[in-house]
Amino acid sequence: MENNNEIKSKKIEFNISTSYLDDLIDKIDKKDLFAVDSLLAKLHPSDIAEVISNLPEKKRFELIALENFKINPHVIVELTDELQKDILEKISSDKIVKIVNSLESDNALQIIENLTVEKKDRVLTKIPLEDKNLFEETLSTYPENSAARIMQREFAAVPQDWSVGQTIDYLRETNELPKEFLEIFIINELNIPVGSVPSSRVLRTSREVKMNSIMNSNKFLIPAEMDQEQVAYNFEQYNLFSAGVVDSNHKLIGMITGDDIVTIIKEEAEEDTLRLAGVSDEEISDTAFSITKKRFVWLAINLLTAILASTVISLFNASIEKVVALAILMPIVASMGGNAGTQTLTVTVRLIATKELIASNVSKIISKEFLVGLFNGLIFAVIAGIAIYIWFRDVHLSLLIAVAMTINMTAAGFFGIVVPITLNKFKIDPAISSSVFVTTVTDVFGFLSFLGLASYFLQF
């Protein structure tokens, strides 16, 4: 059997090539199960999941449908939610029962969550009653993306009056532990955690020593209802490797580990990046039509804001007709303001997500971003003014674009932070909505300042 280091090294070295996929597709077409297994056998489950994701939809399902093909349960866990749902729909309920029974509770719950209602009911009736009750309780009691949905029910916990020797004997004999754990929770007679002991400390302590004498009483406990983003923040803030999850009665019901948090952070980062661009989660496996539907809403909103900006331009049509150079230079002012606003917006969304932006420092940060916008505006006003003078040999035009750029970049710095803060205050995700508003504001300010000043000076 290969050790973990070998598996990890293979994962790092593995890259999906066109020739590899072509070879796999050829073996699928020939229904050569032995050859398919040979191609996949040495890969890490996450690499197999990536291979499946890159297969054409038809070949993906043909692979799953191969007679006697056994898919590693951890491969399904590594698939994206959308692809996981599609794959599970093609697998029989009996096979899914075996998959669920072979996984730890957090991964098993993820599988059950992604089943259709009908298949979920069939699977739940075939798994052990205790597991069925726990899954149904979690799904019905706790909201999606809460700590209870990502925790594992398997954890190491012992009474506070046990000795180290009793604990070690228990750990050796019980079958109810997770495959890996870094700490042992210490509980009282009501199953309420009172502390924890690192596993390494247990191994270095004499058998007769009581567990409560070597425990860390500074315990970080996660309420079952807590949102997973807040859970990830707590792990990062307090450098946690694992943490117990408690119910409303403060009783220990589960554990969250660092690998769960890595997944959450990755998902949240991807989600925020996509939202800033006004798109939703898209998979390699998605069709062109489904992706078009996902992107339509924000493109439609963007069209409306573009019409608003064009309306502002139309107000100064007479000025543009008199000085054609205005039409040439308008995009410069708008583009610089838009980029400055996007920079501020991106930083602000990150500060909100990491909870670094709080009530006590919000005024200071707004002032700082306003000044950054002003300073950048002045710097690029000089640069742009010189460039425009060299280009058009018109000092008035140079001054005009310099003043307009200063105004617009200052406004961009201000609104780039105020807009996401305001949206967040009204419980609207700033990562989704901010970019449309900030871009509109910078376009309108840019055109108003540039064309408004031009119209004013044309009177003289």
Task: Give a quick rundown of the structure.
With 460 residues, the chain is mainly α. The protein has 22 helices and six strands.
In words, what does this structure look like?
The chain is 67% helix and 6% strand. Helix 17 packs parallel to helix 22 (430-457) and helix 19 packs antiparallel against helix 22. A three-stranded mixed β-sheet has the order 1-2-3. Strands 4-5-6 form a three-stranded mixed β-sheet. Strand 5 (242-246) and strand 6 (252-257) form a beta hairpin. It has three domains: 4-144, MgtE N-terminal fold (Alpha Horseshoe), CATH 1.25.60; 157-276, CBS-domain (Roll), CATH 3.10.580.10; 288-457, Tetracycline Repressor, domain 2 (Orthogonal Bundle). It is mainly alpha-helical. Mean pLDDT is 89; it is low at 1-13.
